[in-house]
Amino acid sequence: MGRVYYFVEQGRIAGGIKVAYRHVATLRRHGIDAVVVHARAERPAWFPVPDVPVLAVAGLSFTADDVVVLAEDARHSLRHPAIGPARKVVFCQNHFYLAGGLHGAPDLRRFGVEAVVTSGDVITAFIRRRLPGLPVATVHLAIDPALYRPAPAKALQVAVIPRKRPHEFRYIRDLLRHEHPDLCAIRWVVLENAREDQVAHVMAESAVFLSLARLEGVGLTGLEAMACGCAVTGFLGDGGREFATPDNGWWARDEDCEDAVRQLAACLAAVRDGTAAPRIAAGRATAARYTPQREEAELLAFWRGVLGRPVTADGWTAPRGP
Q: Are residues 121 and 49 part of one domain?
């Protein structure tokens, strides 16, 4: 059996990078020779990086026994002649980027891709729609319960990560202050370019998290806020449809900033008067489904299928035992 190479973009903060590293670490724990490949052999500094091999792409060579794992938008890598002999799997963490990887081609199979693994149900449903017949499996994301958990006491403040919706963030905060002057004194904690532990700490101590998700595959940040015991409000970013219900958050229609203000005001009022508890509890129960154990079992089932027997469009049966 050859080696599994996870090609991972570097130079920016993105949840998908963290997930790819976790996949590699899990595979190595179970005896599968997996490595991370970057443009440069430099490890990210914004999250605790597992102790896994990190290689620079320059100078690598591949055999027919190797499997190369590429992102859904990695059209240049898909066409790179150096990886020609290797088997190809696409790890799709955001279905909105798939068209960039296809770059006008009708199908990933045009580039020799034999299977797709995704990180969520909404993504998998799209792959089945867009690439019918191509084998696809879901490895649901995991939340670290040791990192994402409520603090002993919550502050009445709104935590927010505006990176994907900076204009909407300013609009929502301004309109909330204008239409609800009684809420003006509530503190906002704006997280920008923060390390994972800093984000988890702020979520843990914040009563409310405003989700500014946009064009997401899953919307993991909202789930992490739920795990931290936040009352979560804001946008789903499409991928949040996997887990969001009227019972676990105050969700606004995507792109509707006025609705986002209404939902945020209702959320803050419920937190302040003590009626938010049932939705917060439902949110924590939702997040509790995203366990490292489930992620590990689904990941091993996928890779044992790819490495151990032919891939079929029907997926794979999880093997028994470790």
A: yes
